[in-house]
Amino acid sequence: xxxxxxxxxxxxxxxxxxxxxxxxxxxxxxxxxxxxxxxxxxxxxxxxxxxxxxxxxxxxxxxxxxxxxxxxxxxxxxxxxxxxxxxxxxxxxxxxxxxxxxxxxxxxxxxxxxxxxxxxxxxxxxxxxxxxxxxxxxxxxxxxxxxxxxxxxxxxxxxxxxxxxxxxxxxxxxxxxxxxxxxxxxxxxxxxxxxxxxxxxxxxxxxxxxxxxxxxxxxxxxxxxxxxxxxxxxxxxxxxx
Length: 241
Ligand SMILES: *Cc1c(COP(=O)(O)O)cnc(C)c1O
Prior knowledge:
Helix content is 41%, strand content 18%. The chain has helices at 3-21, 40-48, 59-68, 89-95, 105-115, 143-154, 174-194, 215-220, 230-233, and strands spanning 30-34, 53-56, 77-80, 98-102, 124-131, 141-142, 159-166, 206-208, 225-228. Strand 2, helix 3 and strand 3 (77-80) form a beta-alpha-beta unit. The protein has a single domain (3-233), classed as TIM Barrel (Alpha-Beta Barrel). The chain has nine helices and nine strands. By secondary structure, the chain is α/β, with parallel strands linked by helices. Helix 4 (89-95) crosses helix 5 and helix 6 (143-154) packs across helix 7 (174-194). Strands 1, 2, 3, 4, 5, 6, 7, 8 and 9 form a nine-stranded parallel beta sheet that branches. The radius of gyration is 17 Å and the shape is globular. The chain starts with a helix and ends in an 8-residue tail after the last helix. Pyridoxal-5'-phosphate is lined by residues 34, 36, 57, 81-82, 167, 211-213, 227-231, 241.
């Protein structure tokens, strides 16, 4: 078995143990394999080990790999998780299935209009990125503004509002990790409760949080999608974040 396949088994085991510890069904947590900086061949290896959802951060690099792997498209689901500038939204609207990093209405409006130019594609699945660490560099809307942004996005055509995403500041302290995830989960649940009967929120079911070093804490606090790079593909070179 190759290393990626072995790593995937270990990561799935971590997810399962964390879910059981939190008295949750392991199947309610999806694993997103973050393949930024790794070549298409690594994605193929992961796919052969049963992985289908992949996360990418850099538009140019991602589109190259998506194009190289076009034949495998029926099995692959592509998630854009990196910072997104206006001038890159068209490529994302054309090539991706999901975008986790929407933190401004203008970006959502562009994705909505540009997705509309591809009538054969299904609606683009969108998560609003929230900022829980007051860390500007990582982006994200403040928790207090998340509902208003979600409301505006939920009305746009060609996209579906799926939930929230967060990248808390890294911490070796599990208690601090959990505090940040609690804040995101509470915001998520409050939005769900406030918009319970709103059809624009009927697919608002995704809490995208947790990475290689803190997926246990994220799952303990309700994550439904963990984004794992290093623990699957190994250490990245320095161009990565
Ligand atoms: C790189 C990245 C990840 C994966 O991080 P690892 O620590 O390698 O698991 C997850 N989410 C986002 C937004 C990333 O940029």
